[in-house]
Design brief:
This protein is α/β, with parallel strands linked by helices. 39% of the residues lie in helices and 11% in strands.
């Protein structure tokens, strides 16, 4: 019988921590131990790149620089870069369930600057690290941004607004210490990440990292290399990404991300994207390409239009590009949404495993090209119950009326028969229904199945990670507590992994 596998979805920010936000410290190592003991094979995280004003890990301001908020303070203490006096009276937030990004940012920046003062700038590893041109470019961008009160680049002072060699010379001369500080943060981040990643490998847990398709308008690449995007002669964006009207949003969505100029990128053989994939392949074991359909087509909306319905589909680079980047990179096609027949054919032609999420289509009558029930799933699939954008299964079950619940129970009963999964004739509680759906996903043909800990722990709407197309202050803030990672759940998941031939037996 073919060995299959299972894994979990949890961003690092959701891990327990006494410093207001999950990070790359002891709790991350404990989490790897825990999921290994559950029999899981991989840990799927959200993007690690530095983020913009919304704190969304998909609203990134760089393709190559990392989010310093994930740096672990205890590791800095162990290196004698930070001491207990540095932490006195600092406020990391008072709600262990929610990240207070404003307080965490202020407190961590204070601590990191203390560490920077004690750091040996003549460290040979650091000197070598500073030669990385992509990281340096990001650190220069951050320095310019800080010097402009953290405004977006198009609101910078006139002398900084349009980048040229004179801007670089000015900042190297007058703000070299700030650039050095930003480089220090990136150096520490990568050092801590590499250590954590190596620990995961030692436990035979693979890390799946998410590469956002788009960059924010206020990004270092937009500032330094506007030619990568569809812009006019003044470097102003002409079209932005969005999504057409559908069953979930009758008006459509305008995301606002600038679109890539694929024709220009083709002239240098997609050099920038190749660098991006190469970098991701060195920090992750597998790479999820978010909004994969964007490589086939993207919904383009005129920048100045307020109406998403005025958009149209614009071609991406197509299968030629995918064939160029997929070799030995363990890619996953992700963030597909509802799609057309030609996108379906594009996914099939790519031969890349793709993900399917059950929750959005289980409760809504959405017609799709793909089939979504556990008995219908293809082998070459990452099959999710839900992801970071979905309402947790507990909340969905609490929302539906008895008629819909009876229909769902009938659907579950039929799926159990098809997949030879035990079905209890007695009335199910919502918890029983949720775990029967989890078991059906385990029992499916999918080579890879994935679960959020919100669903495994049977959390409600308060635990939802993100509500797409909103800027709610609770988005991206949810965190778990240490005691929740208990033996009862571990034993239950281990049994399912063992029963359905998904157990991670690697030593």
């Amino acid at each position: 019988m073919k060995q299959k596998e299972s894994g979990v979805i949890m961003h690092i920010t959701s891990l327990p921590s006494k410093y207001g936000i999950g990070g790359m410290g002891k709790e991350a190592y404990k989490f790897i131990d825990y999921i290994k003991e559950c029999g899981f094979s991989y840990w799927e995280i959200l993007p690690l790149e530095d983020v913009g004003f919304s704190n969304s890990p998909f609203q990134v301001i760089t393709a190559f620089g990392f989010n310093p908020l994930l740096i672990d303070i205890d590791s800095l203490i162990e290196e004698d870069l930070v001491n207990s006096r540095d932490l006195q009276s600092l406020d990391f937030g008072d709600n262990p369930r929610k990240v207070d990004f404003e307080k965490v940012t202020y407190a961590k920046d204070f601590v990191f600057k203390k560490a920077f003062k004690r750091f040996d700038l003549e460290n040979e590893e650091f000197i070598e690290f500073k030669k990385d041109s992509q990281i340096f470019k990001y650190c220069l961008f951050k320095t310019i941004k800080i010097n402009n009160d953290n405004k977006a680049w198009f609101d910078y002072s006139l002398e900084d607004r349009y980048y040229d060699e004179e801007v670089k010379i000015h900042y190297l001369k007058h703000h070299s210490k700030e650039i050095e500080y930003q480089l220090f943060l990136q150096f520490i981040f990568i050092k801590q990440w590499n250590k954590l990643h190596q620990y995961a490998k030692s436990k035979n847990i693979e890390i799946i990292g998410d590469v956002p398709h788009f960059l924010g308008y206020d990004s270092d690449e937009m500032y330094f290399n506007p030619e990568l995007f569809m812009v006019d002669k003044r470097n102003l964006v002409t079209y932005v990404a969005g999504y057409p009207a559908d069953n979930f949003n009758s008006r459509g969505q305008k995301w606002g991300y600038p679109l890539y100029d694929w024709e220009y990128m083709k002239t240098n053989n997609y050099k920038w994207w190749k660098k991006r994939i190469y970098r991701a392949s060195h920090i992750y074991d597998r790479i999820k390409l978010n909004h994969f359909r964007g490589f086939k087509e993207v919904y383009a909306i005129p920048f100045r239009s307020k109406n998403p319905k005025k958009g149209f589909f614009m071609d991406g680079p197509g299968i030629e590009f995918i064939n160029m980047i997929k070799e030995d990179n363990n890619l996953i096609a992700s963030g597909l949404g509802n799609y057309s027949l030609k996108v379906r054919e594009f996914i099939n032609d790519s031969l890349i495993p793709y993900n399917i999420t059950l929750i959005p289509t289980l409760f809504d009558n959405v017609e799709e090209i793909r089939k979504v029930l556990p008995s219908e799933i293809d082998e070459n699939t990452y099959f999710y119950l839900g992801n970071h954008d979905n309402t947790p299964i507990k909340a969905k079950l609490e929302e539906i009326d008895e008629t819909l619940k009876l229909g769902l129970l009938n659907k579950i009963k039929n799926e159990c028969k098809k997949l030879n999964v035990p079905y209890l004739e007695d009335a199910f509680s919502n918890y029983d229904i949720a775990f029967k759906l989890i078991e059906l996903i385990f029992a499916s043909k999918a080579d890879h199945v994935s679960f959020t800990f919100q669903d495994l722990f049977f959390k409600g709407k308060e635990a939802r990670m993100n509500r797409p197309s909103t800027l709610l202050e609770d988005n991206w803030t949810y965190r778990f507590l240490p005691f929740e990672f208990n033996n009862d759940l571990k034993n239950k998941i281990f049994s399912l992994n063992e029963k359905y031939n998904r157990l991670n037996n690697k030593k």
